[in-house]
């Protein structure tokens, strides 16, 4: 196949995906709530529907250690919390810092924090993501699914190192009726698995040039997957300051 034919084929696929998403978006707007903007115009333009969908599963992939993915997930959650309901944080590793939520405009009074003992959390990393509620991992997944299906919850934020297809499918079924949005923070290893989430985004902290100490970090956000297809422009750059705030 020639390069021109290949280019035409890719363009046609992108156009078809765009049309399909437009049809789905119109149907969703008529039958249910519209996506909620994040407040970051560049990020909203990257997202196919112009915001974070309600009643959806969103994966935030981070190949690096740090809080960029979690901070962005919290920033996106702040807009969703304009409606009644709380942010439930399923903190498997006792790594959640309330100050991070406050930096993104989320009052602590709107947060329900779910934690398990530190020793049990360490042991849970050796378990598979099965259905056995007798294991620590099984209990943690049960808490995640219960929060996802609760009408008193608006957003769920959870760390999910590993997940089977059935786990994500059950989360999708739960949020379809509750309209809760589930934000999953996942490591780079998740890229080796097929994604069934409504959105999959990857955040990468760019290397700061020499002599630029004190300047905000540059965070690259890439849209890897969406139910409506990925647009031609699938990556943006944001700035993150030392206090956690984002700017464009």
How would you describe this structure to a colleague?
- This protein has 248 residues and is an alpha/beta fold.
- It has 2 domains: 1-32; 35-247, Rossmann fold.
- Helices cover 35% and strands 23% of the residues.
- It is built from 7 helices and 9 strands.
- The protein has helices at 3-31, 41-46, 68-80, 98-103, 118-124, 136-148, 165-178, and strands at residues 57-62, 86-91, 111-115, 153-159, 181-187, 199-205, 217-226, 235-240, 246-247.
- It has a 9-stranded mixed sheet with strand order 3-2-4-5-1-6-7-8-9, sandwiched between helices.
- β7 and β8 (235-240) form a beta hairpin.
Chain-wise SSE layout:
Layout: H1 3-31, H2 41-46, E1 57-62, H3 68-80, E2 86-91, H4 98-103, E3 111-115, H5 118-124, H6 136-148, E4 153-159, H7 165-178, E5 181-187, E6 199-205, E7 217-226, E8 235-240, E9 246-247
Largest sheet: 9 strands, mixed
Count of the separate structural domains: 2
Poorly predicted parts = 20-31, 119-133
According to CATH, what is the class of the largest domain? Alpha Beta
Oligomer: single chain
Overall 3D geometry?
Answer: globular
Question: What is the structure about, briefly put?
Answer:
The protein is an alpha/beta fold and 248 residues long. Helix content is 35%, strand content 23%.
Which tags fit this structure?
Rossmann fold, 9-stranded mixed sheet, 7 helices
